[in-house]
Amino acid sequence: MTKNSARIFNTSSSEYIAMTDKKSLVDNMSVYPAEVTVTTTDNEIRTTIQQSLIDPDAETHVYKRRWYILLAYSLLACTQGGYWNTWGPIAESSEDAFGWSDADIALLSNWGPISYVLSTFVMSWVVDVKGLRWACLSTAIMVAAGAGARCITDQPPYVKWTVNIGQFLNGLAGPVAMGVPPALSALWFPVKERTTATAIATILNGIGVGISFALGPYMVPDRISNQNITASNYSSANTTERISHERHDIMIYMYVEAAWAVFVLLLILVYFPAKPPKPPTLSASVERMDFMTGAKTLIRNARFWVICATYGISLGVFNCWQSVLDVILKPHKIDESEAGWLGFYSILAGCVGSVILARFADVFSRHMKMFLLLLYISGTGCFVWFTLLINGTIPESTYSLYAAIILATLLLNASVPLYFEMACEATYPVAEGITNFVLTLVNNIGGLVFLLINMIPNIGTAWENWTCLGAIASCIPVLFFIKENYNRLEVDEIKKV
């Protein structure tokens, strides 16, 4: 045993050695203080994951209850995402009912990334130190409290305060709703289900946004477009009556959302353990870096920041672009209800595509970069098509707009779980919680900048499409030069002796 060896563990069957090789560290340009590529021989296993012993005979077990845990968390993520997007699909009715402007609607959406930035590191600490139960329970409480705050009044100017407070509280729940899926899948699911579980948990947040596109216009119909306003019926009385109906519809919508949020809170409260009794995989049995060490390690991991940049810039802008789709399409004679259904169909297609691609990624592991390149090249093509349609460069039709938006959303949303899993592989054994909370923080910063620009008076909407196209296309060459590594998968592929 050399002076660089870390530990020897003897069992009745064989000897397992965890050792540090400084030369290999230099050769691999690792950011970890003690890491080399996992290799196996007849009698030894070499690894240096935080000086921890990897025992291939460690007992693992996959529990059926993992699907309940996934369902409960997914409903929470779905609820948070849907409530964040409450106001975009009913923007015109809300502006008429409360005297708001497009900037007010943009601010309500902006509370998502603003709150996210404020709560990311606190909630990532809760996930990695206190566990998933405390993280999800506190998130469910914030979502329910935010939904309740919006039910207090419908009278201006107070309604603006209560709604903004509600959106702020809901935004504080964003880090857990968006960043926990890889941590949950690593704790509960086997290797061949891990990316799929991450995809399911991730898409439910998107499905919540999609549901809000359909449910919002249904619960709050656009009375301005539906009302035949002529010189004979355009009167103060008719306006007052219309506004009264709009406020009533909006408040009923708020009550329904608050009731559902309480139900999800009870679901988490009744049963949601921090982790299973036994880990599902060998990598899950390895102790992760402590929170502060993991944070410092992430800062030094250049590959992780490249992944962050491509994910945050492209999808951060694209997700917030979707939240103002109603405003973008308004000049093209697509009303609030139709824009809502378009948003719903596109996000639903993206969710289906995400799960399908995740299954491929589980079966054909070590090919995430190739999948991401295919998605981004195709997605860029679809967005070029949409932009040319909107600008009138090519003949515009409703069917073409639908096809371009739905295909672009399908392709780009399918990349989210791949980014999550790629980041976890690149940073292992840093805990999945802080890894993906930082990843999604960068995503929200990208969206925050986009929405802040949107609040500039009279800026219009033409810049939004070009910005989104540029954010997506610029990531293609970066993805091409990313070097993949699969630290976690290499541990899981260690064979029992």
Please give the structural blueprint:
Elements (H helix, E strand, L loop, with lengths): L4 E6 L4 E5 L2 H7 L10 E2 L4 E2 L19 H19 L6 H8 L3 H29 L1 H18 L8 H15 L1 H6 L1 H8 L2 H29 L3 H4 L9 H35 L11 H4 L5 H10 L1 H22 L1 H5 L6 H28 L4 H23 L7 H16 L2 H12 L4 H23 L7 H12 L1 H7 L5 H6 L5
- The chain-level mean pLDDT equals 80
Order of helices and strands: EEHEEHHHHHHHHHHHHHHHHHHHHHH
Shape: globular
The total count of helices amounts to: 23
CA-based gyration radius: 24 Å
State the gist of this model.
With 497 residues, this protein is mostly helical. The chain has helices spanning 22-28, 66-84, 91-98, 102-130, 132-149, 158-172, 174-179, 181-188, 191-219, 223-226, 236-270, 282-285, 291-300, 302-323, 325-329, 336-363, 368-390, 398-413, 416-427, 432-454, 462-473, 475-481, 487-492, and strands at 5-10, 15-19, 39-40, 45-46.
